[in-house]
Design brief:
It contains 10 helices and 20 strands. With 375 residues, the chain is α+β, with helices and mostly antiparallel strands. The longest helix has 15 residues.
Amino acid sequence: MREYDVAIIGGGIAGLSLAYFLAPHRSVVVIEREEGLGYHSTGRSAAEFVLRYNAPDVCALATISKSFFDNPPEGFSEVALLKQRGGVMIANAEKVDRFEEVLRAEHRANPEIQRLTVDEVIARVPILRPDYVAAAYYDPHFWDIEVENLVQGYVRGARRHGAAIIERSDVLAPRRDGDRWVLMTSAGDVSAQTIVNAAGGWADPVADLFGVAPVGIVPHRRTAITVDLPEGIDALTLPEINEIDEDFYMKPEGGRLLASPADATPCEPADVQPEEIDVAWAAHYIEEATTVPVRRIFKSWAGMRSFSPDKLPVIGFALDRPDFFWLAGQGGYGILTSPALGALAANLVIGATAPEGFDAVGLDLSKFSPARFEK
């Protein structure tokens, strides 16, 4: 039986980033049930990095993560992890007042935001309909994340420090053996002192498997489609397009246009598939806001975004099981905050203080503790 200090359940971005930061300090095994790492939420992300437009604590985590993305450790990735995309925020005539409210707030936080006239936004984003857009601004602080390079950087770094990664293996019938957990897996038995629950949409069922009280992690389905752009439109030059209340968003993807109705439908944890109604809404928004004809949908898919009851991540040891660590509930921001959350979780597992950068942004780490749901 293989023995480790820490067994991480889940090979998505949460588990892999933790393995990367933890492996230099503890012996680690990552156990993933699917045939590939990052199969569910990680592999179906829109791959967007922003410093704003999320809850304040999430924005603080993004700020901490930005330095890692900009200057990853030597050998982590052969390509830059972020590529500037820029983004336009648009509103129709019915939402001009709401637009002005958002613009004032965002401009205070980011003076680089530029208000655009309708003509200016059409010049920048020629696929937009001038009869739809009544107000717009441009924010340069949108980036595309090179997700595959990020994931592989975490994997290589974790393995370089001795971490084992087991794929295509469920955890079955965990039991106690003295001060350790013994996990039956399809790849053989594994023993560990500490269990990390990084199972994404399955976080609560995994907790139940280990006799730990669930904290209320609920997966939500989000849908996206891609369609062909008209001839003459260069996807490389297009910014991301966001509706002012996030009724939808669009961005280039593989030379095509990705669109999402920004749905967030509670669902059971599963290999989620897109619903016809959500695909139809995505196509509707394309034709309502742009001149792109939806003659065929090249691809449609759905992914899970798993939220805690207060929409903040759950990070820390369970009150009822001090050898069971939560790393779950990252919502739709697990990839963009993974450098910060992976480093924080690693420090908490080994009993160290918060990593460099956390004091500077003034984060109250008790907001992330599972104790807030277990009292």
